[in-house]
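Lecture notes, unit on protein representations.

Consider one protein chain, 161 amino acids long.
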Amino acid sequence: MDTSSLPSYPEMIMVALDGLNEETGSNKTSISKYIESKYQNLPAGHATLLKHHLNRMKECGQLMFWKNNYMRPRPDFIRRGRGRPPKAKDGMPTSDTPAKPRGRPRKDEMDSNDPSGASVPLKKKKVSADNGEQPTEIRRGRGRPPKAKLPMGGEGVSAQA
């Protein structure tokens, strides 16, 4: 088989689209039949090569694919690029509000009289009656308190049953 006299697949596809001249485009089968009727001595993997070149031309923007038909792109057609569009280059923020400082405000800026400012509630310490001091406040520890232990030797299920 002498395939050197054949034009490239993209050229054959464009000639087939022009020859078929369908308004809504041409499907892969009709393009393949047109190429087979016009060109002789096609390679053995013609269907695979045609599919590969159609997909490549579609991704490059040389062909449009709509409702399972391939067509030439219209001249006014603007192809969107893949992926997320780039951010605007403007240095000025688009909102009218001033920028907020990042992070949590400092503790000394918080109102110390505000009860919502205290993140951990305080626990009063019990003092015995013979001690004349006022009860002092202590902070509760972090995390969940330990589970209360059951007294040893209580009634329960024995292991020797």
